[in-house]
Write a structure and sequence with these properties.
Blueprint lengths: L2 E10 L40 H13 L7 E2 L2 E4 L9 E4 L10 E10 L4 E14 L3 E3 L4 H4 L4 E3 L6 E7 L6 H18 L10 E9 L5 E6 L2 H20 L7 E6 L4 E7 L9 E2 L6 E2 L2 H13 L2 H9 L5 H8 L2 H12 L4 H18 L13 H13 L4 H14 L5 H4 L4 H14 L1 H8 L4 H14 L6 H13 L6
Helix pairs in contact: 1-5, 3-4, 6-7, 7-9, 8-9, 8-10, 9-11, 13-15, 13-16, 14-15, 15-16
The structure holds adenosine-5'-diphosphate, magnesium ion (MG) and zinc ion (ZN).
The site of zinc ion has 8 residues, from loops.
Length: 482
């Protein structure tokens, strides 16, 4: 059975600063309802749109990253429909058929299958810039049951990219990997923060053995791209096995139940009455604009970033782990530029530190959960000098550091065994009674002795297990010198 998949990916340019045609914020999250609004994004009479330069620049950088053809000018169009979340009664987009000119066409994305270290590619049909509508909330009984709807216009006018692929994808897994890679690229471009709630939506088109395609709308997570497509393959195969025919239709992904549901038979595009927006004259794409965008695109070339890491003989899975977590890559680059050993630093960041962040339920994408470069540099040196067994660093220092990334390393490092020996000796000399108790089988006494040693050292971060071991060894070896 041949599976054919093409994707339409809508991504908010959450990092663009402003909305597409006004100065309200591009990232509206956490703001009070209907406070991130102005006459333009509320569609008030007489308000005129002014295109955000930054949005065009970021869209252009995306186009270059996707190796697309850039036109000499772009043209925005209007897409009309009536709905409370669309106060102008039209959405500004870039539909080619109605005289619109999208930001770019005919590109390609190469994306990585990290577990097999295999590069795949998919052609890009085009990229559009458009505006997001507002958000409609149905409080009682959902979209069909609620007696009223609430509308929040904070999102109205937020810049979106619509990225449309050719139907080159052959498995749901590849579709997921493509989306993952694309979002990471957009993060490096400074276009979006893929982890923000509702920041992207995928519509996935899928057909089997050259049959009609079904479009699954409203996929909002990377994992769901694969799940929704796997579900469709099953559903469509069953219909075909039973002698049925797949009709062209639009379905809706229900992430809670893990199924797709019928939405409507494909509407005709003409129903939207498209035409070029008379408020927005064509925008020339100058050489200067392309140059500026190219600078951004070059920095965000994941393939180049990966090969840079691989030059240091870092295992590919560590390299991917670092590149796929931007704060880790930023940190890696700094530590290595300060003289850190690339392989040690890579392992420390990609495996141990990142693993411990997960362990403690901390977000690896939040830069404030990572320590400053000096700390990692020192830690990597400690590893190499062998003062501490790597187990101590991994099992004790890194967990402490993850809990408190700004802590100075000295406060996290256990006393060197040499110093500890002296203190242990001293405690054993002073606590003859406790030693005797312990030798007579009162195991509690050992805890008391450990406590005494810790008190003398005056450092909280010493591993009690190490002290316990030293005490046991020393007591077994014979009575302390008095
Ligand atoms: P529309 O204009 O109706 O949205 P397009 O031709 O622009 O349709 O295609 C939309 C999406 O459908 C694209 O991502 C494209 O790759 C995908 N697509 C086109 N043909 C097929 C097919 N036979 N099977 C799966 N996906 C397809
Ligand atoms: Mg479409
Ligand atoms: Zn506004």
């Amino acid at each position: 059975m041949k599976v054919t998949i093409g994707l339409e990916i809508h991504v908010q340019m959450s990092e663009a600063g402003s909305k597409l045609f006004c100065n309200c914020k591009a990232d509206y999250r956490g703001l009070n309802v209907n406070t991130n609004v102005c006459p333009v994004c509320l569609g008030l009479p007489g308000a005129l749109p002014v295109v955000s330069k930054r949005s065009v620049e970021l869209a252009l950088a995306t186009s270059l990253a996707l190796k697309c053809e850039i036109p000499k000018f772009i043209v925005f169009t209007r897409k009309h429909y009536f709905y409370p979340d669309l106060p102008k009664n039209y959405q500004i987009s870039m539909i080619e058929r109605a005289g619109g000119v999208p930001i770019c066409r005919n590109g390609v994305i190469s994306f990585l299958d990290p577990s097999r270290w295999e590069w795949k590619s998919c052609r890009i049909r085009r990229v559009n810039i458009e505006e997001d509508p507002g958000r409609t909330v149905y409080e009682e009984g959902g979209i069909t049951g609620s007696p009223y709807a609430l509308v929040d216009y904070n999102r109205s006018g937020v810049p979106l990219l619509e990225i449309v692929t050719e139907p080159d994808i052959e498995t749901p897994r590849d579709a997921r990997l493509l989306v993952e890679y694309l979002l990471l690229t957009l993060e490096y471009l400074g276009v979006t923060n893929p982890r923000l709630e509702g920041v992207f939506r995928v519509d996935a088109n899928i057909s089997l053995d050259g049959g009609e395609r079904v479009e699954v709308k409203n996929i909002g997570s990377i994992a769901d791209v694969e799940k929704a497509l796997n579900y469709e393959i099953l559903r469509q195969s069953k219909i075909r096995e039973a002698g049925g025919v797949i009709e062209r239709e639009t379905r809706h992904w229900d992430p809670v139940r893990g199924v797709t549901r019928p939405l409507r038979h494909k509407e005709y595009e003409e129903e939207y009455l498209y035409f070029p927006d008379p408020d927005l004259p064509p925008i020339a794409i100058t050489e200067e604009m392309v140059k500026g965008a190219l600078k951004i695109a070059v920095e965000a070339d994941l393939q180049a970033l990966l090969s840079e890491l691989l030059k240091h003989n870092i295992p590919p899975e560590h390299a991917w782990s670092i590149v796929s977590t931007k704060p880790a890559l930023d940190l890696f680059k700094k530590v290595v530029s300060l003289g850190g050993d690339p392989q040690v630093v890579a392992r420390m960041l990609a495996v141990d530190y990142k693993g411990e962040l997960r362990e403690q339920g901390k977000d690896p994408y939040d830069p404030s959960n990572w320590p400053p470069p000096d700390t990692i540099l020192e830690l990597s040196k400690l590893t190499l000098t062998g003062v501490y067994p790597y187990d101590t660093i991994k099992g004790l220092i890194i967990p402490n550091l993850v809990s408190n990334p700004l802590a100075r390393l000295e406060t996290l490092v256990p006393e060197k065994a040499g110093d500890l020996d002296l203190v242990v000796e001293e405690v054993l000399r002073e606590e003859v009674r406790a030693v005797k108790d312990y030798l007579e089988g009162k195991t509690q006494a050992l805890n008391y002795l450990v406590g005494r040693v810790i008190k003398k050292i005056g450092r909280k971060a010493v591993d009690p297990r190490i002290i316990r071991g030293l005490l046991e060894k020393r007591i077994k070896a014979g009575a302390p010198r008095t």
